[in-house]
Amino acid sequence: MRVLITGAAGFIGSHLCDRFLREGHEVIGLDNFLTGSPDNVSHLFGNPNFRFFKYDVTNFIYLEGELDLILHFACPASPVDYMNHPIHTMKVDSMGTLHTLGLAKLKGARYVFASTSEVYGNPEVHPQPETYWGRVNPIGPRSVYDEAKRFSEALTMAYHREHGIDTRIARIFNTYGPRMRVNDGRVVPNFIYQAITGKPLTVYGDGSQTRSFCYIDDLVEGIYRLAIEEGLSGEVFNLGNPTEHTILDLAKLIIDIAGSPSEIVFTDRPVDDPDRRKPDITKAKKVIGWEPETSIEEGLKRTVNWFREKLVAG
Amino acid sequence: MRVLITGAAGFIGSHLCDRFLREGHEVIGLDNFLTGSPDNVSHLFGNPNFRFFKYDVTNFIYLEGELDLILHFACPASPVDYMNHPIHTMKVDSMGTLHTLGLAKLKGARYVFASTSEVYGNPEVHPQPETYWGRVNPIGPRSVYDEAKRFSEALTMAYHREHGIDTRIARIFNTYGPRMRVNDGRVVPNFIYQAITGKPLTVYGDGSQTRSFCYIDDLVEGIYRLAIEEGLSGEVFNLGNPTEHTILDLAKLIIDIAGSPSEIVFTDRPVDDPDRRKPDITKAKKVIGWEPETSIEEGLKRTVNWFREKLVAG
């Protein structure tokens, strides 16, 4: 297959490039390096099946030749990033989605949209199944991300209904692993960086809010199946790890795995920070036979090792 | 003031043109006539304070000269219209909002966004205050409108927070009056047309779902105050009539006012049709001293008369 991946130099996008190349596909990657990094794909340069363009998908996109699959994964994804780039975030998930859907229509390509558990907002239903409509503040500071993702989901479904495009939506829950940015503000790289460097781990609130953390390899397996399997047009899937951990337990675990002398300190929680977020992955289990396989200990060990090497190298 | 009104040939937009001109302002109207009609503004042609351009706001917008106020009212607003034009609806409330906000930033103009009670979706809170986050299905057929409006609200707030633009959001509840399209699929023109022509009035479901109906002159008064008064930057206001009527009672009232021999028939309700929708207008009352003044009987009488004249003329 000939596959276009937007956000190819990002955390998830670059792992998707690796996976699709490993399976023998041809990959065209786009990224404007707003939050992605050339370091994440530099090992792929020279691979004859990989082409990369520095490109901002808020501009019109055209590619010569056939295209079988588009994975729209471009978008600042951490709160720190999308709060720093609120308007660009909204453009990527409106104009960027329009342009990539337009290309899918033109090429007759299948389309996979990278959505997020943030479409559920601060949910009153636990765990969240795909049928849950969410509880999002449309005018709060996080709405630049949440509402843009919801808009893109609606647009994806409109192209599916109106133009018959084979679309699939992945609602991605917290994912972690190698290639996250140290300073992207998300809890796992934050804690790991703090633990490795012996700084105090900063926990928002009392740390009793829970999150579920999916290791990147597990997530990529889910996205790969969702993208490759037949008969999933118009479907939405939660992809994430349903095992819950409190933020406080996560901090302790990372200190332990890193063998760190760090202490834990508590700070104010940001506005609209959700209390709980946990995927109901019944549908993914049943329909694409997927569930996460990597334990949190194993995933964190690999991630800590990667960060340690990177910090020493950098 | 020099005022730009998008959707100027629409139902609400054209009444806004009338009002701003009557108050001595200069009005520039844009409309692509997708759902608006030249008939709604033809009486203004020749007025030296009014200029009109047939224009699609999904394209880049630029105007020479100063601009004090932008009212972004372009968008298919009835379910029939936005279901017929799902993708264009989403473009008007993403690219159109981006372009008009960009123009507001360039000109230092105040910005009023025409949002909707549909951002509340199928609410579990009655009446809905501005602080209610809503319950919307992001992938349902109505999401092309609801999510686009929520996206535009989020984008409006992002421009307010990021660029300091003086923005105001009006969440407009059901409004009726002269210049609605006979065939726009909404309940008031539907029933009036059916009553005037002696056809059966078609009620969705058992007609026990309630709606609140605001007469156009009352709504325009609210929007005018919201747009003109100082110190409302970044604010959101519900504008609508809190008096509830069941759809069945509305049908009976219209038959009565029209002196019609029509009967009432019941049909299936569309997907995601909300059970109830009623504005909490406490904020508008308190902050801009606004509340609706026209009784449903008086408003319907004027609307029935207008439709009768139009149908005879047409």
Question: Would you write up a description of this structure?
Answer:
The structure is a homodimer of 314-residue chains. Chain A is an alpha/beta fold. Chain A has one domain (2-179, 213-242, 275-293): NAD(P)-binding Rossmann-like Domain (Rossmann fold, 3-Layer(aba) Sandwich), CATH 3.40.50. Helices cover 38% and strands 18% of the residues of chain A. Chain A contains ten helices and 13 strands. Chain A has helices spanning 11-22, 79-84, 86-92, 95-107, 143-163, 187-196, 216-228, 247-258, 282-288, 296-313, and strands at 2-6, 26-31, 50-54, 69-72, 110-116, 167-172, 175-176, 201-204, 210-212, 214-215, 235-239, 244-246, 264-267. In chain A, helix 1 links the parallel strand 1 and strand 2 (26-31). In chain A, helix 6 (187-196) crosses helix 10 and helix 8 crosses helix 10 (296-313). The two termini of chain A are 36 Å apart. The mean pLDDT of chain A is 95. Chains A and B meet through helix 3 and helix 5 of A and helix 3 and helix 5 of B.
How is this fold's topology laid out?
The structure is a homodimer of 314-residue chains.
Chain A (H helix, E strand, L loop, with lengths): L1 E5 L4 H12 L3 E6 L18 E5 L14 E4 L6 H6 L1 H7 L2 H13 L2 E7 L26 H21 L3 E6 L2 E2 L10 H10 L4 E4 L5 E3 L1 E2 H13 L6 E5 L4 E3 H12 L5 E4 L14 H7 L7 H18 L1
Parallel strand pairs in A: 1-2, 1-4, 2-3, 4-5, 5-6, 6-11, 7-10, 8-13
Antiparallel strand pairs in A: 9-12
